[in-house]
Amino acid sequence: MPQGLPRKIRIAFLLQVVIVSLAVVAAGWVVSLSIRVGFIRSASQAEATEFFAQRSVHPDASLPHGRNFQTWFVPTGQAPTQVPKYIASLPPGHHELADHDMQVRVAPGQGGTLYIAYDQERIDRLMYVFAVLPIAVGLLAVFAVSLLTYRVSKRLVTPVNWLARQVAAWDPRDPDIDALAPHRLPADIGSGEARQLAQALHTLGERVEAFVARERNFTRDASHELRTPLTVIRVAADLLETESGLTARGQRSLQRIQRASRDMEAVIDAFLILAREADIEPQREHFAVSDIVAEEVDKVQPLLEGKPVALRIVKRAEPELHAPSRVLAVMVGNLLSNACQYTDRGDIEVRIEEDRVSVRDTGIGMSNETLQRAFDPFYRADQDIGGMGLGLSVVRRLGERFGWPVVLESVPGSGTLATIQFVR
C-alpha cells in the first residue's frame, strides 16, 4: 500500500520535524542578530550613560570595564593619543568595524568623549553560548520527541495497516476471509479495536459468502425449474394449435396462453440476467436491431385487437449490435406492451435510428410526478390497468447493466416517448 498509514504518518512527522527545525533556526537567527547588533548597541549606550552619570557626581569615576570590551576616555581639549587611530577618527555613534572585527561606541559627554570597543570574537562566542547551543539542544529534543512519537504511532497503526493489506488483497469474487479468522490473527493485533474490526470483517465475509452461494444456487435452480414448466406449456400449446377442431374462442384462448408463456419466459430471462453477478454476462451475438423490433411488434399485435390504434415501424437506419439480443428484446417488448396498454386510439410508432430505438404513443401520458416515479418497482400510473408495475423498472435496470440508458418524455393527454440509447 504505497499510500498506507505508516507512510502517511512518516511523512507527517518528517514535515513536523522540518517545520519545527526551521522555526527553531529562525528563532536562533533572530536571537543571534539581537545579540550581535541590538544587544551590543543598547549595552554600550547603557555603559556610556552610566559612566557620565557617575562622572557628574564624581569627576574621577572609573571607566567602565568588562571581559568583552575596552574603554578609553579623552577629556575635552586633549588629543586621543592612547586611542587607536582607526577608533579615534570615528564620529559619535555606534560603528561596526569589520576590518578589525569589533563594534565601537563613540559617546561624547560632560568633560570629554568615551570610547567603548567590543571584541567581535568574544561577542561571537557569547552568541554561540546563548544562541547556537540552545538551538542545537532544542533541535535534538525535537528529533528525539518526534522519533519517539513516530515509533509509538507506527506501533499503534501497524495492526490497522496489516488489516488493510489483507482486505486489499481480497479477490472480490472469492475473498480469502480465512486470513481474518481469530486463530490466524498476528499476536501484535492485540485485543483492541483492530482485532474487533478483523472479527467483524470475518463475520461479514462469512455472511457475504453464504449470500453469494445462495444467489448462485437460486440462479442455477431457478433457470432450470422455471423454464421446465414453461417449456411444457409452450410445447403443449404448439401441439394443440395443430388440432383442427378448435373453435374461434378456443383459438383466442390458445393464443393468450402462447403469448402469456412467451411473456413469462421474457420476464424470467430478465430476472435471471439481473440476478447474475455484474461480470457474468449472457452470451453475446451479432444481430440486427430491426429484426428484434419486428419480432416484438408481432408479439404485441394481439394487445391492440379492437382498438383504433395503428402500430408501425419507422426505419431511419439499420444498426447492428454485438450484445445479448434477448436483453434488447425484453426491453423493447416491455416498452411496446406499456404503449399498447395505455393507448386507446391514435398510433404507436417505433423508430429505429443509428444510435437508438424509440417508442412513441398517443396514450394517456404521464404527469411530472408520475414521470419521476415511472421506474419505481410496483408503481403503476393507472391502477385499473393490469400488470405488476415491474416493466419499466426491469427495463431501466437492464439498460444500466448493459450500457443502454432509457429516457422517458411525456405530456399528460398527449402520449409518451420512451428511448433506448445505444452507448458505444
Give the SSE layout:
Layout: H1 5-57, E1 69-75, H2 85-88, E2 93-97, E3 102-109, E4 112-119, H3 120-168, H4 193-241, H5 248-275, E5 285-288, H6 289-300, E6 309-315, E7 320-323, H7 325-341, E8 346-353, E9 356-361, H8 368-373, H9 391-402, E10 406-411, E11 415-421
Parallel strand pairs: 6-8
Antiparallel strand pairs: 1-4, 2-3, 3-4, 5-7, 8-9, 9-11, 10-11
Helix pairs in contact: 1-3, 4-5, 5-7, 5-9, 6-7, 7-9
Describe the structure.
- The chain contains 9 helices and 11 strands.
- Mean pLDDT is 80; it is low at 383-389.
- A 5-stranded mixed β-sheet has the order 6-8-9-11-10. The chain has a 4-stranded antiparallel β-sheet with strand order 1-4-3-2.
- Helix content is 54%, strand content 17%.
- α1 (5-57) runs antiparallel to α3 (120-168) and α4 (193-241) packs antiparallel against α5.
- Among the domains are: 5-150, no CATH class; 285-421, 2-Layer Sandwich (Heat Shock Protein 90).
- The longest helix has 53 residues, at 5-57.
- It is α+β, with helices and mostly antiparallel strands and 424 residues long.
